[in-house]
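From the methods appendix. Each design record in this collection lists the tokenized structure first, followed by the designed amino acid sequence. Records were kept in a plain field format so they could be parsed without special tools. The example shown here is representative of the layout used throughout.

RECORD:
FOLD TOKENS (159 positions):
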């Protein structure tokens, strides 16, 4: 079974969204054989990746950074989407953190990188804004020798 993990931005600008969605769909829905998708289901890239992976028939493994992870969702729609995707997961992995923190996010991101065959990064190429951010997880995966596919629309910056 091919295992594909995700790291990415919580905010994808509107002018990049169609391209990101199309490239994720091409990568995840055009795959032969069984596939497992690993995601923390954060708003933005993680939820989009999980939704498209499920659409393509993948099994979903949810990697939850902390016991209070749901409290970090400010938008009720994003929380509802998180819960709906989580309910469709075939496996749930919980990091040993009671409270959400940069260390918890880093642990979840490195778990995904450690346990996938390829990491997909929905990333604008800029430095991480905190520990466990997209750039840091990409760097970690590359240091492992893990293939990383970066998906972004050139010339667009996140806000």
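DESIGN:
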């Amino acid at each position: 079974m091919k295992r594909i993990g995700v790291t990415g931005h919580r905010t994808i600008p509107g002018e990049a969204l169609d391209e990101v969605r199309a490239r994720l769909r091409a990568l995840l829905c055009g795959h032969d054989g069984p596939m497992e998708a690993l995601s923390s289901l954060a708003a933005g890239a993680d939820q989009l990746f999980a939704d498209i992976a499920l659409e393509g028939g993948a099994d979903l493994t949810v990697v939850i950074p902390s016991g209070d992870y749901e409290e970090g969702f400010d938008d009720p729609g994003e929380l509802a989407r998180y819960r709906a995707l989580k309910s469709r997961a075939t496996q749930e992995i919980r990091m040993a953190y009671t409270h959400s923190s940069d260390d918890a996010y880093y642990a979840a991101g490195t778990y995904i990188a450690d346990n996938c065959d390829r990491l997909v990064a929905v990333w604008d190429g800029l430095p991480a804004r905190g520990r466990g951010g997209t750039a840091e997880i990409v760097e970690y995966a590359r240091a492992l020798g893990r293939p990383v596919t970066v998906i972004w629309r050139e010339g667009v910056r996140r806000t």
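APPENDIX NOTE: The longest helix spans residues 14-29.
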